[in-house]
Design brief:
- It is a single chain.
- 42% of the residues lie in helices and 23% in strands.
- With 287 residues, it is of the alpha/beta class.
- Strands 1, 2, 3, 4, 5, 6, 7 and 8 form an 8-stranded mixed beta sheet that branches.
- Strand 1, helix 4 and strand 2 form a beta-alpha-beta unit.
- 39% of the residues are buried.
- The protein binds S-adenosylmethionine.
């Protein structure tokens, strides 16, 4: 990405921040299995110092804050001011005192070497400007027997939470073919791709786990449609290009495509993610 593209990407996240805040309760609930997977994989426990990279509206930092307890700490980071503000406001609202906030990008972490026990990133590695540098930075700031874990989406076909709406909209709005290495939720969906980046960044004992789970909530299709079309910059941009007559047709097609995932007022989508982790030295192996 050149600097102009980087700015555009950060502006898009800045515009998304208010929606990530608006849906924070639902996001926390829907993606809780990803946080649980990260916590388990990185063996996060009481008293640890944890770094969260690309923390968005606050997860997994807010959850980890209660796991590490008063003798541990979490340092939340995100390059987008709007995300940092909403996450910090939520931590203050909850009265959390063991959580610190820094606005910074994964590629240039403003922390001393070996400042943390563990580094985690939930759904943000796909957006790193230079993923090898981002992972190398994560390894630099953890202790010698530290561990870094990144959770990313598996293939689009295994994640109908995303594809049911995007596939329908793409039938109506032209989408240019994308560079597979450009920032995108599915940039690391191919097994082994992010693991290769960890290896290139110097991680030891790199391990990739597939996490199959369900994205669930007490949500109607109408609420899901609103959430999806508000939270994603790509969808906001595509929706703005629709003609007023296209919108009802598209919404009906999406309703039909998503019907089987909405039963008795409850949303339940199958989902797949990859948790990719590595140690800084050969000392910290796979659990
Ligand atoms: C899909 S959101 C995930 C947020 C949160 N971790 C969660 O799981 O709810 C992706 C986050 O990555 C952040 N991000 C974008 N570029 C980044 C970069 N270069 N370094 C670190 N984070 C970045 C965005 O600002 C956004 O908050």
């Amino acid at each position: 990405m050149n600097p102009k593209e980087q700015n555009k990407a950060l502006e898009a996240w800045q515009a998304s921040a208010r929606y990530w805040d608006k849906y924070r309760v639902l996001i926390a609930q829907m993606f809780a299995p990803l946080t649980a997977g990260l916590v388990e994989e990185a063996r996060i426990g009481v008293g640890q110092k944890v770094l969260d990279i690309g923390g968005g509206s606050g997860e997994p930092s807010l959850t980890i804050s209660s796991i590490v307890g008063p003798n541990g700490s979490v340092t939340y980071t995100d390059p987008v001011a709007g995300m940092v503000e909403t996450a910090q406001a939520e931590a203050e609202r909850r009265g959390l005192t063991n959580i610190h906030f820094r606005q910074c990008s994964a590629d240039d972490l403003p922390f001393a070497d070996r400042a943390f026990d563990v580094a985690v990133s939930r759904l943000s590695a796909m957006f790193f400007v230079d993923p090898v540098t981002g992972v190398r930075e994560a390894l630099r700031v953890i202790v010698d027997d530290g561990y870094a874990s990144f959770v990313v989406w598996g293939p689009k076909e295994a994640n109908p939470f995303f594809s049911t709406v995007t596939d329908v909209i793409d039938r109506f709005v032209e989408s240019p073919k994308q560079d597979p290495d450009a920032p995108d939720p599915f940039r690391f969906a191919v097994p082994g791709k992010l693991a290769g980046i960890l290896v290139n960044a110097g991680a030891e004992n790199v391990i990739e786990r597939q996490l199959d789970f369900r994205i669930e909530g007490k949500v109607s299709f109408e609420q899901f449609w609103q959430l999806r079309t508000e939270m994603s910059e790509t969808l906001r941009e595509k929706m703005a290009r629709l003609t007023p007559t296209q919108l009802p047709t598209i919404k009906q097609a999406a309703t039909d495509a998503a019907r089987r995932y909405f039963v008795s007022g409850k949303m339940s989508f199958p989902a797949q993610a990859l948790i990719v982790s590595g140690g800084k030295s050969a000392g910290r192996g796979a659990p």
